[in-house]
Amino acid sequence: MTEQKKPPYGIIAILFTGAFVAIFTQTLLNVALPAIMIDLNIKDASTVQWLVTGYMLVNGILIPASAYFIQRYSNRSIFILAMSLFTLGTLFAGLAPTFGVLLAARMIQAAGAALIMPLLMNVMLAAFPVERRGAAMGVFGLVMIVAPAIGPTLSGYIVEHYSWRVLFYVVLPVALIPLALGIFKLKNLTFQNRELSLDKLSLVFSSLGFGGILYGFSSAGQRGWDDAIVLGTITIGVVSLVTFILRQLKLSEPLLEFRIYKYPMFALSSAISIVLSISMFSAMILMPIYVQTIKGISPLDSGLLMLPGALVMGFMSPITGKLFDKYGAKVLAITGMSIVVISTYYFSQLSLETTYLEIMFLYTIRMFGISMVMMPVMTNGLNTLPMKAYPHGTAMNNTLQQVSGAIGSALLITVMNTRTTSTAEDLAKSGADPVNIMKNSMMEGINYTFFISTFIAVVALALTLFIKKPNRQVTEEEKERVYKQVPVKES
């Protein structure tokens, strides 16, 4: 695989279009789940939640294998396959007569989406030299951030005025455009496709490991931590994951290369991304609960509340990328994480009287801070890797985001539920008005969870102090020596 002298902007534009529609669809159903329950006669909320959990599970299982596909097959073949699966899944979902068909269609969608993001990131890394990657990855961040933010807002509007099936009918023609462009216009980059053999046992352990952990933690908020299924799937997941990692370290051509953690800055970027993802999910999970359950705001207005924050992140992403090229990741990450810590603390001081505009302003400021951290830290870590390790680095980053997001969600929901229950019991004993017990106890649960999330953000802030700028004079050969355990100097 060799770097392109002139970036293939046409190829990148086609891949960007596919990535946008794939990420956009990931959050599209969040607001629509109640309407789907009524239409398909689903009694249990935990059942319909599988439309979101199942999508995340398929992503978590397939993303680790993306490194193999990217090294083995051409970017054109992978993209056409991915967009074909995604488009078919979208069509079947819109026509689904039963919940089972709808769930299967969502998983077909997810199978396509899981391959598109790592593919795009690898093309970006291969197409742009190190000194221009910040700006390029900033534009990549624009898609990654704006697409999932538009999903709930559009979904809220459509569900209020039309059937939930219209969501898929809107996505379908948009998905057909990049598929058609991929078939007729997309060319292969000068990747040297390697003759790799797929280690099937690694794929089994990877699926059981990441799938078990994702399912277990995702189910814990509904079933409880003492549930046999939750404990069983997490145990199976942990054991399988440990076995998977040990096996990868012994293979000459692993499914997922864990030896990339010999590069200190990549290891640090992964740690920061994990902690930041967990902290990020506090607002993504708790804000809809607060504004809809406690404040009584409609789903559409709830989505609109978060839209300015997403637009700010999208606007800042290319700017942050250019600043990264000029100043490096450390200054940006420290500044951004400081903003995240302060704004998260202020979220822990919410009350029943907090206004809609105050919440919107706080959320927007928090997203502004996150925009200064996410892509610069990730790009800084990937820049330390040799080119042949890019597929493994991007697969590792995407996998860890899925897993840490699921774990963070489950832990934060557990913290909120525990605090809410204990506060409700105390208020009941004190003879408080039963009408206000629910709102006040949930308010306390949300505030306490944001307070815990503040400390999680502080950990990420502390880690940003150790960021170093990779030496751009280091050659590919010197980078690859790390695999042989010979240290590389970093400036």
TrEMBL record:
<feature type="transmembrane region" description="Helical">
    <location>
        <begin position="303"/>
        <end position="324"/>
    </location>
</feature>
<feature type="transmembrane region" description="Helical">
    <location>
        <begin position="50"/>
        <end position="70"/>
    </location>
</feature>
<dbReference type="Pfam" id="PF07690">
    <property type="entry name" value="MFS_1"/>
</dbReference>
<feature type="domain" description="Major facilitator superfamily (MFS) profile">
    <location>
        <begin position="11"/>
        <end position="472"/>
    </location>
</feature>
<feature type="transmembrane region" description="Helical">
    <location>
        <begin position="448"/>
        <end position="467"/>
    </location>
</feature>
<feature type="transmembrane region" description="Helical">
    <location>
        <begin position="331"/>
        <end position="348"/>
    </location>
</feature>
<dbReference type="InterPro" id="IPR011701">
    <property type="entry name" value="MFS"/>
</dbReference>
<keyword id="KW-0472">Membrane</keyword>
<feature type="transmembrane region" description="Helical">
    <location>
        <begin position="229"/>
        <end position="246"/>
    </location>
</feature>
<dbReference type="InterPro" id="IPR020846">
    <property type="entry name" value="MFS_dom"/>
</dbReference>
<feature type="transmembrane region" description="Helical">
    <location>
        <begin position="360"/>
        <end position="378"/>
    </location>
</feature>
<feature type="transmembrane region" description="Helical">
    <location>
        <begin position="108"/>
        <end position="128"/>
    </location>
</feature>
<keyword id="KW-0812">Transmembrane</keyword>
<keyword id="KW-1003">Cell membrane</keyword>
<feature type="transmembrane region" description="Helical">
    <location>
        <begin position="266"/>
        <end position="291"/>
    </location>
</feature>
<dbReference type="InterPro" id="IPR004638">
    <property type="entry name" value="EmrB-like"/>
</dbReference>
<feature type="transmembrane region" description="Helical">
    <location>
        <begin position="198"/>
        <end position="217"/>
    </location>
</feature>
<keyword id="KW-1133">Transmembrane helix</keyword>
<feature type="transmembrane region" description="Helical">
    <location>
        <begin position="166"/>
        <end position="186"/>
    </location>
</feature>
<dbReference type="GO" id="GO:0022857">
    <property type="term" value="F:transmembrane transporter activity"/>
</dbReference>
<feature type="transmembrane region" description="Helical">
    <location>
        <begin position="77"/>
        <end position="96"/>
    </location>
</feature>
<feature type="transmembrane region" description="Helical">
    <location>
        <begin position="12"/>
        <end position="38"/>
    </location>
</feature>
<protein>
    <submittedName>
        <fullName>DHA2 family efflux MFS transporter permease subunit</fullName>
    </submittedName>
</protein>
<dbReference type="GO" id="GO:0005886">
    <property type="term" value="C:plasma membrane"/>
</dbReference>
<feature type="transmembrane region" description="Helical">
    <location>
        <begin position="135"/>
        <end position="154"/>
    </location>
</feature>
<dbReference type="InterPro" id="IPR036259">
    <property type="entry name" value="MFS_trans_sf"/>
</dbReference>
<keyword id="KW-0813">Transport</keyword>
<comment type="similarity">
    <text>Belongs to the major facilitator superfamily. EmrB family.</text>
</comment>
